[in-house]
Amino acid sequence: MQPERIQSLNKKELSDNPYVIYWMQSSQRVDCNHALQYAVEKANDLDKPLLVYFGVTDNFPEANWRHYRFMLEGLREVKMELEKRKVKMIIRKISPERGAEELSAYAALIVVDRGYLRIERQWRDYLSTHAECPVVQVETNVIVPVETVSDKGEYSAATLRRKLNKLLDRFAAPLEEEEVKISSLNLDVGFDELDVEDLDTAFEKLNLDRTVKPVDRFIGGTNQAKVFLEDFIENKLSKYSQLKNDPSLDYSSNLSPYLHFGQISPLYIYNRFLEIEDDNKADFLEELVVRRELSMNFVYYNGGYDTIHSLHEWARNTLEDHKGDAREYIYSLEDLEGAHTHDPYWNAAQMEMVLTGKMHGYMRMYWGKKILEWSKTPEEAYNAAIYLNNKYSLDGRDPNGFAGVAWCFGKHDRGWKERNIFGKIRYMNDKGLERKFDMESYLEKVQRLSL
């Protein structure tokens, strides 16, 4: 395992407490998980059993029933897979960092995976200060560790790509996995646990926003992620570059919800594609590696990643210059959320997200641009896009989601021809959609979803 993935978060000395604990949070999987594997190795070195802990808080920012259902489906699978490997998993209804703090009294060492969002970093900072044992963070949700690639927020995909390409070969090495020596399955740690085998019962204990229902299209867990991956390779990859942008078709991998919850490793996907000879894989790997890791770089180095202040200066200035421009249409947040606009393509994109938990990637760009065009101010538009994407998308509320919204407002892009409202921000319109795609087929596809 590359040492750059491993970071000590405090200077506590190893104790003789009975367990090594892996606090699983952002990497909700067993396969190809560097943090889990590091914890296994340390437990074996210390001749101690390994416990895996996950804390479920029912007030994670902007998360609702849809997100929790998908996550708990995945955690149910993780618990079963760990049992096969003689590792006990404890899932508790508690703020994650508080639960980890309580467990630290019994831990010789706590290992935690890395998260990049504000709340994830706050949780880990809290534990590093309050834990009674050493805390080690292991980075496993990117192929190349964020700080190894760059020590600053990158301007664009091009600037990050050059740095990534120099490091990919070394960090793409497959993870060597080791089994635990000592089973922890019979250990009783004395804490109440959230039973995820019966999800309905688990949900009764969680005080959730239930206004956004779960979706049938996506079932959480690594096994389902791998089904989508293999289907993509077998049935879509050969035409991916040609057809990926067509919203009337379905040539996406559908992996983004699984990557969001850490239910599948980007390294696993990357190495699976190294086995394939197909020129179309270059476009897919650009999105998996460069674009995805650019989003991690964005939220890590930009504290205002969820606000309009995260934009480049030129983008903020051009939007400010055109803030007072006349707008033909202005829609409220309620209009947008209900898909009550004059534009059938935009309405369909919004409903696709509401009904399935995911929006076609090309339509998400169009969707974001039109929110800018139809809002009273750029700030109102930015906030609306963040709100809607986070509320309904299974792959919202993460670096990719925040970077995707920011891109619609000029982040990681360049200036274009100046025009009303947009200034120099890249423009999209319905005529462009109609020139490129069979938009009537897209409307019909979304209509069928509501039947």
Describe this structure in words.
- The chain has 451 residues and is an alpha/beta fold.
- The protein has three domains: 1-141, HUPs (Rossmann fold, 3-Layer(aba) Sandwich); 142-175 and 222-301, Alpha Horseshoe (Serine Threonine Protein Phosphatase 5, Tetratricopeptide repeat); 304-449, DNA Cyclobutane Dipyrimidine Photolyase, subunit A, domain 3 (Orthogonal Bundle).
- The chain is built from 21 helices and six strands.
- The chain has a six-stranded mixed beta sheet with strand order 1-6-5-2-3-4, sandwiched between helices.
- Helix 16 (344-356) runs parallel beside helix 21 (439-449).
- The longest helix is centred in the middle third of the chain and has 21 residues, at 281-301.
- The model has no long low-confidence stretch (mean pLDDT 97).
* Major beta sheet summary: 6 strands, mixed
What CATH calls the topology of the largest domain is: DNA Cyclobutane Dipyrimidine Photolyase, subunit A, domain 3
Question: How many strand elements?
Answer: 6
Low-pLDDT parts are none
Instruction: Write down the secondary-structure element order.
Output: EEHEHEHEHEHHHHHHHHHHHHHHHHH
For the record, what CATH class of the largest domain applies?
Mainly Alpha
Q: What structural class should be given to the helix and strand makeup?
A: alpha/beta
The end-to-end distance, rounded to whole angstroms, is 49 Å
Query: What fraction, in percent, of the residue positions are helical?
Result: 40-55%
CATH architecture of the largest domain: Orthogonal Bundle
Mean pLDDT: 97
CATH homologous superfamily (4th level) name of the largest domain: DNA Cyclobutane Dipyrimidine Photolyase, subunit A, domain 3
SS element count, helices? 21
Coarse morphology: globular
Radius of gyration: 22 Å
Strand content: 5-15%
Query: How many domains comprise the coordinates?
Result: 3
- Strand ordering within the main sheet: 1-6-5-2-3-4
